What we know:
Blueprint: H1 3-31, H2 40-69, H3 71-75, H4 83-105, H5 107-110, H6 113-132, H7 136-142, H8 149-160, H9 168-186, H10 189-199, H11 203-208, H12 210-243
Amino acid sequence: METRELTVLAGSFVGFQLLFSVASPRLSSAITPGYGRLPSTKLTEWNSRLVSTVHALIVGLFCLYILWFDDAVNANPVWGDPGLVKLNVAITCGYLLYDLVLLACNWSTMGDSFFVCHHLAALYAYGYVLTRGVLPYFANFRLISELSTPFVNQRWFFEALKYDRSHRLVVLNGVAMAVVFFLVRIAVMPSYWASVFATFGTPDFERLGLGAQVAWITSCIALDILNTVWMYKITRGCYKVITGRGGRKVKEGNEAPSSPDKKHVNNHTD
């Protein structure tokens, strides 16, 4: 890993820590008075999800820029010039490390084994991008999935603030979340795997070596399985909201009932 990528990774790790502990509490208190009335466990997750949204917007938009304008990466998906992709991946790796530390420190309230598997699989695969500069197109393509994260987090914000599930904003966000999640995580699977299979047997693929090949394919399979599971849960929740089965009236001063799927629903899903 070059000094530039290492600096970006470390800087993003520290930056996300500061955003979590300093910027998020101040910004959230200024935006909504409901933030200050949350219990301490929810304050932690609120700040975590705000950081997640910021990361998703930065990385997701950077990803689209690379996909549209980085001709070198698009021309050679296995060995194209990885400069911009490595910067984007370094930001994501810094975020993943920050989030793993946060999960470890708050495991009793935020722990999720699927979430940890997701992070470790991503770090394993992205490590090859940072250290060897391989597979830049595929690494960048994977980061498109970040564009669904803000909607997932917004759903949690609405629930934390006790918005009724039949509220127009909640319904609109739920539908948008399901649609965007499907588009950037599920609908792209055939195109992504077609590009993967097209490299099999080529000199570029053989040049990767067995280690990189296994890391690439196994991590992609694991992430797609997780994305499919999360898509099922999101679709089920969206159906309940649209049909009115998820609506509820929240009495003032009482905590909203928890959904069976609510335990720390993935707020980084890539």
